[in-house]
Amino acid sequence: MNKMHPSLSLSLRLNPTNYYYYSPSTNQSLLPLSSFNPNPNPTPTPTPTNPISISLSTRPRSILPILSSSSNSQMEMEMEMEIDSLVQVAHSVADVAGQVLRKYFRQRFDIIDKDDLSPVTIADREAEESMVSLIMANFPSHAIFGEENGWRCKEESPDFVWVLDPIDGTKSFITGKPLFGTLISILYKGKPIIGIIDQPILRERWLGIDGKITTLNGREITTRTCSALSQAYLYTTSPHLFSGEAEEAFVRVRNKVKVPLYGCDCYAYALLASGFVDLVVESGLKPYDFLALVPVIEGAGGTITDWKGNRLDWQVSPQSRPTSYNVVAAGDVNVHKEAIELLQ
Prior knowledge:
globular; alpha+beta; single chain; 17 strands; five-stranded mixed β-sheet; 24% strand
């Protein structure tokens, strides 16, 4: 049996009352997490607020064999506590982002076009800052890479990196369509081990943990069986985002599926994990657009790779610049195989 790798041992051994969060609504910095209420209104919400108990040996597919088992029961318990702490803080990071986004959703605000002509808003920036503040308070040795502000870390080569996209689907957000999402990924040595897709308006949260079954608001979910590409429901954000050879490849797939659909951003991958969609094909995604999706899709029984069938990860560093990837996700391995053949 493998023993825990020394580099995995976190310096923090905190109980829940010692975690902290940033309050964007009151502009107070770093309050105890025990006092955090993700919904200041007393209406019920399905978003999980309690720590999740993690068992690390229920699935054999873990990309972290050093996390999968140990002959030492005390070591196993410490490993579970460490993963538990990451998951708990990740939930709180999604909560504080959701508070910001609900405040601005369907409100009037300025929209700025970035150099690549993609829009950014005050909501993107304020949400990311609230997320970063919470992570840095709880895991100061971890690196953070946010879509809006890039790399933040005091260490040169940290094992853990949080990759954040406060609003995946900014165009949906600014036009009042509640199909955007907040994406949170935790990488361990470049591999995504925890992923969250959070839809703060619909109060839906998908959680993927490497080696575990994906959950939606705490309930386990799975992809659905689809016998052939010709029976598949396909999603992509927009057919106009493809160009050149990528456009030709996408058209080959689109012409083979049963129903092509458009316009969901990261929410399409969440629907795939929940068993409502069979295939998602996209081009030109950045790491912060897809890393959180990997544990969610795989934990639901699906497959997500680049168009050549390679696993998606990111060896990020202070010098890293997000490059573009072509991504394909399928709920059924047979559909994934057929799609890959057409995308070559």
